[in-house]
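Hello Y.,

Per our agreement to keep a running log of every chain we model this quarter, I'm adding this entry. I've kept the format consistent with earlier entries: sequence first, then predicted structure.
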Amino acid sequence: QVQLVESGGDSVQAGGSLTLSCAASGYTASSSSMAWFRQSPGKEREGIASISPNGAATDYADSVKGRFTISRDNAKNLVSLKMNSLKPDDTAMYYCAARRFGSPWYTRGAWQYWGQGTQVTVSS
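Predicted structure for the entry above:
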């Protein structure tokens, strides 16, 4: 059974940093791309970062480019999202996604597996 478990969400002040982690189990994470999405109340779930199976290629949404960094440790079946210069607009539930089967990567329907999410709240 595939399971993705996110952690690291917290409440921080604007300008602060957080690192989210996603632990994968039940399959070999190194065999698939992984991604981070986020969703605010009343908004669509949006893809913000993705990473290729070997970690060599990454993609970012314009809204987080230059502030967020996605990385992975395949030996530990772990993917992380380092978030710097956080803004109130970054407040959302953050989700880990795995095993991409569609395009484009930043759409919810392109991914097979999802975690339950971790909440990030940024205050001004």
